[in-house]
Design goal:
Blueprint: H1 2-40, E1 48-54, E2 57-64, E3 67-76, E4 79-86, E5 89-94, E6 97-98, H2 107-120, E7 131-141, E8 144-153, E9 166-171, E10 177-182, E11 188-198, E12 201-210, H3 222-227, E13 232-237, E14 240-246
Antiparallel strand pairs: 1-2, 1-14, 2-3, 3-4, 4-5, 5-6, 7-8, 8-9, 9-10, 10-11, 11-12, 12-13
């Protein structure tokens, strides 16, 4: 009987240990992201209006306890275009008049407005309800240690397909988000530069890379390709004239 009891106890301890390890790993990913949000601006993200220029178009992100409004304006063929994403509802106005175009017709514009605003406010958006985070481990990039986090999405309400995968690298010492990679619309790796603090919130511009001759390689290995200088620069992601207005 004692032998059976000891065996049962050992098996139970094994499964409890595995569950504990799984929870610890998930919690570590959450802790890394929480620290990153704190050092990038913390509670300032919750009630703020951020304006910036991106590739000739004016963007505004306005968010508080009621939700968010993403706004983009630009000139096109002599018309004044205004795209508004208000808590998930997207509309386009042409010269101040609702275009009344269908959601399908405006799907590309919706994705563009959502993506630009999403990336501009990282890492704050990584605590959205639909975001699923997993801690991969510590890796070294260019002689610096980073926490590597994998992000997937629950689907509904996320603005991203459940099949989309992102990776983020957070400096172990500072908590800053220095790199990210994703497989949405092609494999990409971004390296932050020109990191600056504006009215309490940290922003960055990015060098955008593709896999080059290693384009078929999974993005979870892009940190190694970048470290070995095997990625190809495609473009620069630059936020112009950033203005931060705190809301009280």
């Amino acid at each position: 009987m004692r032998s059976f009891t000891a065996y049962f106890f050992s098996i139970s301890l094994f499964f409890l240990t595995q569950i504990s390890f799984g929870q610890s790993s998930d919690q570590k990913a959450q802790n890394v992201v929480d620290k990153a949000i704190e050092v990038h601006g913390g509670d300032l993200f919750k009630q703020v209006k951020v304006s910036f220029g991106f590739r000739g178009k004016s963007h505004t992100v306005d968010q508080d306890e009621k939700g968010y409004i993403y706004d983009r304006t630009f000139e096109e063929d002599g018309d004044r275009i205004r795209d508004v994403l208000d808590n998930g509802v997207f509309k386009r106005f042409v010269n101040g008049v609702d275009s009344e175009k269908s959601e399908r017709q405006l799907s590309r514009a919706f994705e563009d407005v959502n993506a630009v605003s999403y990336f501009a406010l990282l890492p704050y958006k990584l605590n959205d309800q639909a975001v699923l985070k997993a801690y991969i481990g510590e890796v070294e990039i260019k002689g610096v240690l980073y926490h590597k986090i994998k992000v997937t999405f629950a689907g509904e309400g996320s603005g991203d397909s459940p099949d989309n995968v992102f990776y983020y690298w957070f400096n172990v010492e500072t908590g800053f988000m220095d790199y990210l990679a994703y497989d949405k619309g092609g494999n990409r790796f971004r390296a932050a530069y020109n990191q600056r603090v504006i009215n309490g919130i940290r922003f960055a511009d990015y060098i955008n890379y593709s896999g080059g001759t290693s384009a078929s390689t999974s993005i979870d290995a892009y940190d190694k390709l970048y470290d070995a200088d095997k990625l190809k620069e495609l473009s620069r992601i630059v936020l112009d004239d950033v203005v931060v207005e705190k809301k009280h």
